[in-house]
Amino acid sequence: MPELPEVETIIRGLRKNILGARILGVEIYLPKVVATPEPDLFKSKLKGKQINTLKRRGKYILVYLSDNSLLAFHLRMTGQLVFHKPGYNEADFPKHTHLVFRLDRGLLRFTDPRQFGRVWLVPKDKPEWISGLTKLGPEPLDDTFTEERFKDKIRQHKQKIKPLLLDQAFIAGLGNIYTDEALYRARIHPAKRASDLTARETETLYRAIKEVLSEGIKYKGTSVRDYVDGTGDEGHYQERLAVYGKKGMACYRCGTPISRILCANRGTYYCPRCQKLT
């Protein structure tokens, strides 16, 4: 699933190509991906609108339009949102292309093999109509997300640290890849209870979360399956992963083989020596 760095990378790429563009029309090939409104109204409301602003909130892509409406995307597991310049051969669209936005400067396609991604068109002042958006926790890269705020939030929870970090109401944008990487960097076992973390561990984890997310953005995301950026290019952070997807490979710090367990029903990678439970 595209996480914060991937979504941020997509938006930065799209800004260069579609900011200020006008939507000439929309084609819907899989109606269920449009959560609201119904497909015909979705198409008619978008026609002629200009794209004024693109933002990210957690894993959501938010496109603000000229009529004070909000077009929102959540890519879920395998979604892609890719811009193509004029002249692109539409016969080359990937299978599972479900939406095509025709712009006055090219095409924007939404593709999703697993069909879990969703798109909403709502009034700008009705973000609560977008499932999950208003329930998101703080943005981990914002200046308002301070170390003290993180410590206060951690103290309130007794559940295991990995599922807590994956909870979008706790922190927005973290997913499986960057959670595993941050916990490894902080030398914390993914199954350790959040309330059992020491002050030092909490401080180290806070820094690790910010570091891995910032690095993920710097290297334009992690392409291990379906992720590509807003122009169709793969990211490069997969080349720098320390534990995710590295089962059986040697820990670069101590040489111990990386293990894989299930934690919160998610495949979880960690070093048994560097990240001891007790």
Structure overview:
This protein is globular. It has 2 domains: 132 residues, N-terminal domain of MutM-like DNA repair proteins (Alpha-Beta Barrel); 95 residues, Helicase, Ruva Protein, domain 3. The protein is α+β, with helices and mostly antiparallel strands and 278 residues long. The protein is built from 6 helices and 11 strands. The mean pLDDT is 97. Strand 3 and strand 4 form a beta hairpin. A 5-stranded mixed beta sheet has the order 2-9-5-4-3, covered by helices on one side.
Largest sheet, if any? Answer: 5 strands, mixed
Give the helix level as a range of percent.
10-25%
Computed Rg: 20 Å
- CATH class term of the largest domain: Alpha Beta
Tell me the CATH topology of the largest domain: N-terminal domain of MutM-like DNA repair proteins
